[in-house]
Amino acid sequence: MELLVLAVAVSTLSCGCSGNRVMLRPIPKDPLGDQLQLTSYDGPRPSQRTEQLLRIHNLTYQPKSDPRPIIRQLQAFNQRYPNSERIYAMAELAYLGGKTAEKCNEKDIALDLYGAAVLDAYEYLFDDRYRDTRNPYDPQYRSACDVYNGALEAALRIANAGKVLVPGATKTIHTASGNWVVTCKLQSTRWNPRDFARFEFCSDYEVTGLKNQYAVHGLGVPLIAVRQSYQGEPVAAKYYPQDLSFPVTALLRPVANHKTTEGDSPIFSARKSGQSPPGETPYKNAVLELHDPLDRAETRIGRGLVPLESDFTTPLAYFLSKPDLNRLDYAGLLRPEMLLDVARLNHPDPVMGLYMVQPYEPGKIPVLLVHGLWSSPMTWMEMFNDLRSIPVIRDHYQFWFYLYPTAQPFWVTAALLRHDLAAAREVLDPQHREPALDQMVLVGHSMGGLLSELQTLDSGDKYWKLVSKVPLDELKTDPEIREKLRQTFYFRPNPSIRRVVTIATPNRGSDFSNQTTQWLLSKLIQLPEMLLQSQEKLYRDNPHAFVDHSLAKVTTSIDSLSPGSPIFPVMLAARRPCWVKYHNIVGDMPGQWWMPRFLSSDTDGVVAEASAHLEGAASEIVVPADHSTVHSHPAAVLEVRRVLLEHLTELSGRPAAELARRPAP
Questions:
Q1: C-alpha distances out from residue 151 to 47, 119, 352, 489, Å
Q2: How many beta carbons lie within 10 A of that of residue 356, not counting itself?
Q3: Strands 619-623 and 169-175, how do they pair?
Q4: d(CA 44, CA 100)
Q5: Measured on CA atoms in the order 503, 506, 512, 513, is the torsion positive or negative?
Q6: Inter-axis angle of helices 107-126 and 139-161, nearest 10
Q7: Domain extents for the chain?
Q8: Mind listing the pLDDT tens digit for each residue in 24-41?
Q9: To which CATH superfamily is domain 336-652 assigned?
Q10: CA 203, 199, 175: angle at the middle one, nearest 5?
Q11: Given a cut of 90, is residue 221 above it in pLDDT?
Q12: Cα–Cα distance measured from residue 259 to residue 272, given in angstroms and rounded to the nearest whole number
């Protein structure tokens, strides 16, 4: 029975987040696919309204033919008698012509037609000449947005395949309304043009590994930008994981009085503004803007704000599908030397320490998410995905993650976290002039909650007395080991941490840590040889220095979580700093027919409710979930959201609803 319970508990410990989070679609998602018969043998074909307009003008369009002669006739007529139905038909026909040309491998013609479709659709949507005939309640209005988005995505695919979708590049396109010089420009202060290694298209992927998907409907093309490292990158880039991906939205708009510069990189046969030969149509200008929708999900066009078509979840899921990320929980518990060796060798794969999955931003409060036993930062992605979707939270907070080898005792890891937070402050804000970094919020799941709590406690000499009856300075040991012991057992509360949220945290230990599990996992866990050798030498050189059940004799995290560990009473009795507020979330696993009866009552399967309870917490709720899912349960996410909004309200003295109102760009 003990082995059955162990198997259930071990499976409960697993975060269940391995595997791919996205699946490649056989055909990219396209809202115009059915309406315009894009994949039909007889298609593509115009919509019924466009065919009717062509009949009225005594024009006939043959499927799979070149629509440019018809578009030129409509363009000439529209210049004299502007009409929204006509400009829409021009956009739709150009889009269909682009599809036909692309199937015939005529990329340059396709690019011209797609560009014409985008610019005509833009004219339909925003030109004041169509104000009286444009109806936002007409389905054609939404179709114009779809034509804009679909044609722009098709054009970007051609540019991306040619590896020329880069900030600063230009391209000339030829349309019935004129010749256009299009310049690609990055519209973000958070990213640098050199950050972009490549782009993927969100419509190519279906999210399979995250429950909730967050998007904004509007204009533009949602992209997945994959970051690259480069010489001279910001100092904060040391905290970015390899091949980080992030959302970008591409938007094309015509501009007035835009001048290209000699620094622009020409694509194909781009001409500079104003250099059109005699007799040719003068060159107009347009800008392909690359927006960061996490920074602002709308842009100003004319007199109004227009939402950007944005996808927040697919780029995250794309990044999480990296195979290396899905081995971190295994390495952290059973093979911690893998993380330690990688860190020593400065390996490009994920290593221990702090991580950011968005650029560091001065003025935004860090929320540090600390995972638990047999886990990794991947376990937070459901909560992160949910919280980041809330504008007021992403406007005021930045999310950091902590990766550590979960095999070692939690008080040892707490010392590493203490060091890493101090080091990050010196890197990001060496002059300590950034007030947001002094308002940090820590959120810890399971053992991660203990690490987070220890960042806010004052050790005095209480913890060292749990180790030895001999003063630390009198031990016979190397200076390096003495300093590591000092950092582990002597510490002060971090004044920059203002709130701690603990989730399913074993504040009084866990019955999961018993003789059976400790013995079995001691056979599975392979601790670094250097650590074991140093520990043996310390005991050998100081045979009578250590007390019975000394914390220094605990070798694994499983042992450290034993309810009999003397550290728990000391932590519970410790005085908490007056500047820190604690919030607690407790899991209560609903009873299942296959679970032993004693696991189905007042426990999350690993931590009993009595152990997870935290005296003196400013708030505490019970969530009906097991240990491995409690931190992604909607009730837990809502509680963390509430805490973050409460934190903002107390800091600013303004209600969260007022903080959510942002000035127009």
A1: 16, 10, 44, 62
A2: 21
A3: unpaired
A4: 8
A5: positive
A6: 150
A7: 22-314, 336-652
A8: 777 677 676 566 666 666
A9: Alpha/Beta hydrolase fold, catalytic domain (3.40.50.1820)
A10: 80
A11: yes
A12: 8
